[in-house]
Every structure is written in C-alpha cells, then in structure tokens.
Amino acid sequence: MHLTLIGIGTGNPEHLTLQAIRAINVQDLILIPRKGAGKADLAELRRAICDEVLTNAQTQIVEFDLPVRDETTADYRQRVDDWHDAIALAWQSAMSGRNAQKVALLVWGDPSLYDSTLRIASRLHPQPQIEVIPGITSLQALTAAHAIPVNEIGAPFVVTTGRRLRDEGWPEGVETIAVMLDGTCAFQTLLPETYHIWWGGYVGMKEQIICQGPLSEVSDKIIAMRAEARENHGWIMDIYLLRKHF
C-alpha cells in the first residue's frame, strides 16, 4: 500500500498546492477522521476540500471515529503513545476490505510541524510506502496575517508548546518563540511588560481573528476573544508569536 500524507494548510482550499491537488486525485481512498460533535466542522472542512478539488469519481472517501485520548494516566508520553496506537488501529479498520492500494490522509498544516501523523503511520502493519506532500503551516499563516517576519535579523527562534512554556518558562538563548497547542493561554505565566505578542485564531480561514500588541495591554483581550470564538464554533485552533524585549 502507498500512503500519502497531504498537508492542507489551515483548512482554506486556496492553501492547497498544485502537488496536493494532484495527489488527492490519484487516490483510491481518502480517510477523514471524525473528532466528535464539538469538532464536526473539522471533518466538514476536509469534505469541502474534496468537493472542491476532487475530480476522480473512483476515489472513495471514508470517515472514521478518532479515538479519544485517555487523560487519566499520569505519564503524558504513555498517554500519547497509547492514543497513537489506537489511532493506527482505527486507520487499519477504516481501510479494511476496501482493496485500496493508494490511501491518503489530509493533514492540517504540514505533517512535519507538531503533528503526529507520521508517527502514527509508522505503527501500521504491514508498513506502507509513505509519501509526504508539504502544506502551509499555521506559523506561516500567522506571520502572513500580521505581515511580520518570524525572526529578527540573523536571530534564531524556538517553536514550542503551551505546556512547555507554562512548565519550563522562557527558553534560554532566544528572543522570539512561536507557541502552538496552547489550551490554557500560557502567556499568562510571563511578566507581561517584557513581551510583544502576535496572536491568531483560525489563521488563514474565513473565521480568522487576530490581535497583536504589548502583552501587558492585549493579554486580557486575547483571552476573551479566544473564549468567545471557542464558544461560537465549539473548537479553536490558535497560535501566537512572542518577542522578548531585552
């Protein structure tokens, strides 16, 4: 079996590359995960992308229920490993009996950046031939929305998670960080007078909302915007860039 992981950007069909569109149209089977009623929009966005660009009438589209991660186990890595095992089994169940040689998954952003699709794919047996089609990342969409470069001249930056920012503080040796997967607004743990923030929710999509400014001035506003957006849509994908002023 040939498994293609296709980066689709942030859900905007215009983010698809020509390579991605060609890849979608040579598949025997496209798998679409369902993440529950609160995140039904995510499956609908994938279906909408297929409706817009898929012209191959022979391609099957099959939805499957994504397993829920167990949050009771104390060991975070063990919880994630068990969850990935369960997802790999769900993929194999969805593919079973389809007689599909070319199978694809549509991956938010790009499979290389804070996405575990490649790690899950490595759990499949027998192991398929894997091809990756790169996509626009949420980090690129964020900097485009604010019309800013991600780094200062010749300077490094760090991409990290909200959990690590909250638990470990500001990374040493950098003045710019991009924060992903932050469900608790971990920027609240920083001294706000020291930082500038560029935040965005649903970046690149028609629902896009953005806010930027000194963290001391816009922190409460971002928290309120995020809460309202999540209430309205049932889910939110957001990301932000922080720059430290020395």
Derived structural class:
alpha/beta
Low confidence ranges: none
Largest sheet: 5 strands, parallel
Q: How many E-type strands?
A: 10
Overall residue-averaged pLDDT value: 94
Distance between the termini: 53 Å
The main sheet orders its strands as 3-2-4-1-5
Radius of gyration, whole Å: 19 Å
Query: How many helical stretches?
Result: 7
Principal-axis shape equals: globular
Taken in chain order, the helices and strands follow as EHEHEHEHEHEHEEEHE
Helix percentage = 25-40%
Report the sheet-strand fraction.
15-25%
Structure description:
The protein has 246 residues and is α/β, with parallel strands linked by helices. Helix content is 33%, strand content 24%. The chain contains seven helices and ten strands. The protein has helices at 18-24, 40-53, 76-95, 117-121, 138-146, 162-168, 215-233; strands at residues 2-7, 29-34, 60-65, 102-107, 129-133, 158-161, 176-180, 195-201, 209-214, 238-244. The termini are far apart.
